[in-house]
Design a protein that fits this description.
Largest sheet of chain A: none
Helix content of chain A: over 70%
Shape of chain A: rod-shaped
Strand content of chain B: under 5%
Order of helices and strands of chain A: H
Number of strands of chain A: 0
Structural class of chain B: mainly alpha
Helix content of chain B: over 70%
Radius of gyration of chain A: 21 Å
Oligomer: heterodimer
């Protein structure tokens, strides 16, 4: 499945692992913050209703 | 209809809500295609071996790290000149994405550098200006977090952004200005035909498109988050008054 990366296998795989991990973390944090902000605004709007 | 209409948070929320699903889909498609193509279906380089596959992460991330700062500069200038809150919040939203891109460029560059240059790090002009840009990103983010008043924070971070732009541009042109570093000069230019073989060039372009689209998706999502948080604070302040 994984192509033969020869003697640089560790270098290439670690570069991909770190980059994908950082990108996934960024997306996950952004989605979590978005959900929290949406919920906080809904609660505040509910409370602000007369 | 003017572009400035979208500086209105209500209009921005409506437009970004419509654009986000398409941008997400396009970003995921480009990243998936480009990275799978690059990793699985490109041959080893005769000099660099399989490390050439790192290009599909390193180049797009480095390009984004510099260009995100330029986008933040434009948004900051719009804030300073026209006082549109959405532009200040968009600049704020872009900073963590820029931090991540800079980190990816630095890590992948170091990992690539060890087998090719014999070292993870050198105080080369491009590498040095990049690490300074990274520190500016951290400082920009910290300044937003440190100042309670949103408008004051936007003013201060905009000025910091203008100062940091020197290093963003320096990161871009360091290899042209000083030729005593380890880092090679720019291979991708808009004016000249690329010397990169087509078997690497096409997946690289797809990866670059994927990173740009990912940035657009995330900056829209994160700007929407900041607009909601700002609205929440305003409602809570009104309620407690």
């Amino acid at each position: 499945m994984i192509p033969d990366l020869g003697k640089y296998a560790t270098d290439v795989l670690s570069a991909y692992a770190i980059a994908i991990l950082l990108l996934v973390a960024l997306v996950a944090v952004s989605l979590r913050q978005s959900a929290k902000a949406r919920k906080a605004l809904q609660d505040a709007e509910q409370r602000a209703k007369p | 209809m003017s572009l400035w209409e979208y500086a209105n948070p209500v209009k921005f929320m409506a437009l970004s809500g419509r654009v986000l699903p398409f941008a997400t889909l396009l970003a995921a498609s480009c990243l998936f295609t480009g990275l799978i193509w690059g990793f699985f279906f490109t041959a080893d380089d005769f000099k660099q071996g399989s490390t050439v596959k790192i290009i599909f992460l390193h180049v797009p991330a480095a390009m984004m790290a510099i260009n995100i700062w330029i986008m933040m500069l434009i948004a900051s200038l719009i804030w300073l000149i026209r006082r549109h809150h959405v532009s200040a919040l968009a600049a704020r939203a872009a900073a963590p994405i820029g931090i991540t891109m800079t980190l990816i460029a630095l890590f992948t560059g170091a990992i690539w550098g060890k087998p090719m240059w014999g070292t993870y790090w050198a105080w080369d002009p491009r590498l040095t200006s990049f690490i300074i840009l990274f520190v500016f990103y951290l400082g920009y983010n910290a300044l937003w977090a440190a100042v309670d008043d949103d408008d004051t924070a936007a003013d201060l971070t905009s000025i910091l952004c203008m100062v940091g732009s020197v290093f963003a541009l320096l990161s871009r042109y360091a290899v042209n200005l000083w030729n005593n570093g380890l880092h090679q000069s720019a291979t991708l230019t808009v004016t000249e035909r690329s010397p990169i073989d087509a078997s690497y060039y096409t997946p690289l372009l797809i990866c670059i498109a994927g990173f740009i689209l990912l940035f657009i998706t995330l900056v829209l999502l994160r700007t929407r988050t900041h607009i909601r948080l700002r609205r929440t604070r305003a409602l809570l302040a009104r309620g407690s008054a």
